Amino acid sequence: MRIKVVDVSNPFEDLPTVPDADELLDKAYSRAARAGRAKMDVDAQYAMLDTAGHILTDNLEDIVRRWPDFDELHPFFRTLADAIVGIHALRSHLGSVNWAARQIDTIVTEHRARFRGEPAVAKQQRKQAFARIASIIDEVAEALDALETARRDLAKIPGIDPTEPTIVMAGYPNVGKSSFLNAVTRASGAIASYPFTTTKIDIGHLDHRHIRYQLIDTPGLLDRPDSERNPIERQSIAALEYLADCVLMILDASETCGYQLEDQLALRDQLLDRFSTVGIPVVTVCNKSDLSVDTEADYYMSVTEDDEVDTVLTACLDAIDYEPALPFESS
Ligand SMILES: Nc1nc2c(ncn2[C@@H]2O[C@H](COP(=O)(O)OP(=O)(O)OP(=O)(O)O)[C@@H](O)[C@H]2O)c(=O)[nH]1
Ligand SMILES: [Mg+2]
């Protein structure tokens, strides 16, 4: 029997700051100078070279080690990370940093072997080694900067629990998505809003029969046809596919939202294509039933009149049909 441990928060949240090239060299060389002062002659040169070498290889290795294994990430976070910074580029930067650590190791060993117990030679060799080390660090300066930028961007990913059953809302602007989110999560408190690649994401929670559900709205993402989306937006939607257990598509037959019903139905068809085909139920609801019900839909509601809102919510929860994974179940 094995207990499944699931990573539920943003895996990039606690990554430490990546130092830049200057910081790394300053740190290594000042510590080396201190180590050298405590010794004499050849020993001083050994101490300097070893100290600088260790500090740099330790720091560089630590940068690489701290990053999560991309293959082990939940696909929601992996896809999102790929949309935000590009996993291929990240891997290559981490590879460069690792390469630098190995190079520095080799440089230290090579020059140490040439000291021959003579202070003048040792000093000259140590200086040459420092110059080579500096140029190695210089070569990975861009990779270090890119990693730090990526770290900062990835830390902003909201700590969404991808294992919590999730309803994702879709529909053209002004059809009533926020109104619905507010109405059904009112009892459970505030809706949190986070940046989400090129847009933002609003997350509300609700409890139903002791299960916690999350309802999410990504204004500016699932609100228009695919053809108008850029690659980052498309990939953010791909990430949403790993998150959504049900899609709630809201229509506004009254067209007071400012968009023609025909366009809204085309979006609905795209969502059916994208989500239903991979087994994610799409519930279509016509909102603003106080104004018009002149379209085909699974349900009709009016959020402002509080008419059938609970029916729609229950339909979504039933569509999810969520059974929590019990920790004592073997997998
Ligand atoms: N008559 C009527 N108006 C509604 C209903 N539901 C929402 N509205 C109104 O429609 C407008 C837009 O509602 P929102 O909830 O902000 O719509 P939205 O889909 O979140 O819009 P975006 O965030 O721009 O995508 C608001 O003025 C609401 O008061 C409804 O059932 N009937
Ligand atoms: Mg809204």
How would you portray this structure in words?
Strands 2-3-4-1-5-6-7 form a seven-stranded mixed beta sheet, sandwiched between helices. The protein is α/β, with parallel strands linked by helices. It has ten helices and seven strands. The chain is elongated, with a radius of gyration of 28 Å. It folds into two domains: 135 residues, Four Helix Bundle (Hemerythrin (Met), subunit A), CATH 1.20.120.1190; 155 residues, 3-Layer(aba) Sandwich (Rossmann fold). The relative contact order is 0.11. The chain binds guanosine-5'-triphosphate and magnesium ion (MG). Magnesium ion binds next to helix 7. The site of magnesium ion has 3 residues, from helix 7.
CATH topology of the largest domain: Rossmann fold
What is the CATH homology-level superfamily of the largest domain? P-loop containing nucleotide triphosphate hydrolases
Largest sheet composition: 7 strands, mixed
Tell me the helix content. 40-55%
Tally of domains: 2
SSE order: HHHHHHEHEEEHEHEEH
Bound molecules: guanosine-5'-triphosphate, magnesium ion
CATH level 1 name of the largest domain: Alpha Beta
Arithmetic mean pLDDT = 92
Per DSSP, what share of the residues sits in E-state strands of 2 or more residues?
Answer: 5-15%
Q: In order across it, which strands form the biggest sheet?
A: 2-3-4-1-5-6-7
Q: What's the Cα radius of gyration?
A: 28 Å
CATH architecture of the largest domain: 3-Layer(aba) Sandwich
Specify the number of helices: 10
Estimated structural class: alpha/beta
Backbone shape: elongated
- Secondary structure tally: strands: 7
Contiguous low-pLDDT stretches (5 residues minimum) are 1-7
CA-to-CA gap between the ends? Answer: 8 Å
